[in-house]
Specification:
alpha+beta; Beta-Lactamase; Hypothetical protein af1432; 8 strands; about 55% helix; about 10% strand; GAF; GAF-like_dom_sf
Length: about 500
């Protein structure tokens, strides 16, 4: 009968070991370790400690008879860490890497049990048997301790027997390895996350006006996903993003623009249409103005009739120079839409020649820049900027993403695709564009429209941004149902 019971324990031990290996969430793993060890030992309560900076920190606490279950969600339990003093049973187990089994805490002087005894006085609880088992990794290092309280047999408090002690030691070894594996994975993930943020920082350092964009998109997409989780109408009712899925979305947000690291700074940070060319144009206009004045002053020594004609020409040319300055300054501002009237003005300025002056008011480059109707980039410059998506794809293809992050590159690369196929760089459309990409696209555009740190435009208020996004829905570019969720929840209300 006893052997049968022991065999049952070992069979359960094997199943628990498999469960430990399968668990991917750190807090659930800690809870599983304590829960299963407590069940195998038939203990009323227990605490799992993790060794952190030379102290045992409370992570999970359970007591069945008192209905206490703490720490399973990763929340702080609130107890002070245990110092590594041999007078404490759990610290002793960790220091000596051995199980410690005390039949009755009230009939031993081996350890200081004043804490449990005081707890008993205050609550009426009765602490009797106690066992501490170290969690040891494959490098033979203690990473934690499980402390069990009050073995129960047929309703009575009894000592933990030696066979149970052996089984708990075996389980603690499996648990130690499982924890080490998970910590190793978490360390690799942490290193990977840090590397990604280093790349993002490199982009931000090259473009101070865009410094918060990746961070904003990461925050928005997390809030957006959680908003979708609570949405109860339309095609996205019932859609749910778990924490791991949200982490993948946030990762995609962080890396979606890393290809901008190769975009030339004169394109990336172009604040106005003329940018550095503005100084050249200004000096050119000053030079021409000086030559016009010199021509007139020379005419003052001519007969009165010549002087009169010269003066009329001089005043006409200066008036045009003044007009040219005003137009150039106006058109140079990125907020100005260059309509047909302004295009004709620019053409006239470019073509204008003055008597006795070889130079033109505008260089060929300035003329090209001033004919940009929206924004600050020429078609060629915009192509260079849009190519950051291709570069992002090339960079991400060189990185080995863990299996659980395999969708991240695709989501990141496709954030400029539109449902009608007019986006870039693949020209995807309709069902070819995943929900995650549709979310990132909306957020990317919203943040760009409302950003206040861009030199080439003022950030617009949210209501104006949503009007533009709504028009893009009508044009068939964006997902209207997703935009409705984003607009009518608090997902968009974060801003750095």
């Amino acid at each position: 009968m006893v052997n049968t019971k022991i065999n049952d324990y070992y069979e359960k031990l094997i199943k628990v070991g498999m469960a430990l290996t399968a668990e991917k969430d750190y807090n659930r793993l800690l809870e599983l370790i304590l829960t299963e060890m407590r069940k195998i030992a038939n203990a009323d309560g227990g605490t799992l400690y993790i060794l952190t900076e030379g102290q045992l920190c409370h992570k999970i606490m359970q007591n069945v008879s008192m209905n206490v279950f703490l720490g399973g969600g990763g929340e702080s339990i609130g107890f002070a860490p245990i110092v590594m003093d041999e007078a404490n049973i759990s610290a002793y187990a960790a220091i000596h890497q051995t199980a410690v089994n005390i039949p009755d805490v009230y009939h031993t002087n081996l350890f200081d049990f004043s804490g449990p005894k005081n707890f008993d006085k205050e609550t009426g609880y009765v602490t009797k048997s106690m066992m501490a088992v170290p969690l040891i990794n494959r490098s033979d290092e203690v990473i934690g301790v499980v402390q069990l309280i009050n073995a129960i047999e047929e309703g009575e408090l009894v000592p933990f027997n030696k066979e149970i002690e052996k089984i708990c030691l075996a389980l603690s070894s499996q648990a130690g390895v499982a924890l080490e594996n998970m910590q190793y994975v978490e360390n690799i993930r942490g290193l990977f996350d840090s590397f990604v943020k280093v790349l993002v920082t490199a982009v931000e350092e090259r473009t101070p006006y865009n410094a918060n964009h990746s961070r904003n998109v990461a925050v928005f997409v997390e809030r957006f996903a959680k908003a979708i989780n609570t949405w109860q109408e339309g095609p996205y009712a019932g859609t749910f993003f778990d924490e791991e899925h949200i982490k993948r979305l946030v990762m995609a947000a962080w890396v979606h623009d890393i290809g901008k690291v190769t975009v030339p700074e004169n394109v990336m940070n172009k604040p106005t249409r003329l940018a550095s060319e503005f100084d050249i144009v200004s000096k050119q206009i000053e030079l021409i103005e000086a030559k016009i004045n010199e021509r007139y002053y020379q005419a003052l020594i001519e007969p009165d009739t010549v002087q009169a004609t010269a003066r009329e020409l001089w005043e006409m040319d200066l008036a045009f120079i003044k007009h040219a300055r005003e137009i150039v300054q106006k058109v140079n501002e990125p907020s100005t839409f260059v309509d047909e009237t302004l295009l004709r003005d620019i053409d006239e300025i470019y073509m204008r020649h003055f008597i006795g002056v070889e130079e033109s008011l505008l260089t060929d480059k300035a003329y090209e820049f001033l004919r940009i109707q929206r924004g600050t980039l020429t078609h060629e410059e915009r192509t260079i900027m849009e190519n950051h998506v291709v570069t992002t794809e090339k960079m991400l293809s060189k990185m080995t993403f863990p299996k659980d992050l395999k969708e991240v590159p695709c989501w990141a690369v496709n954030h400029h695709e539109f449902l009608d196929g007019s986006g870039y760089s693949r020209g995807l459309k309709g069902d070819e564009i995943s929900t995650e990409v549709r979310m990132l696209t909306i957020i990317d555009i919203y943040d760009a429209l409302t950003a206040t740190d861009r030199p080439y435009k003022k950030g617009m208020p949210p209501e104006r941004a949503f009007m533009i996004l709504g028009n893009m829905v009508k044009e068939g570019k964006l997902d209207g149902e997703l935009l409705k969720i984003f607009e009518h929840t608090d997902a968009w209300q974060f801003k750095n």
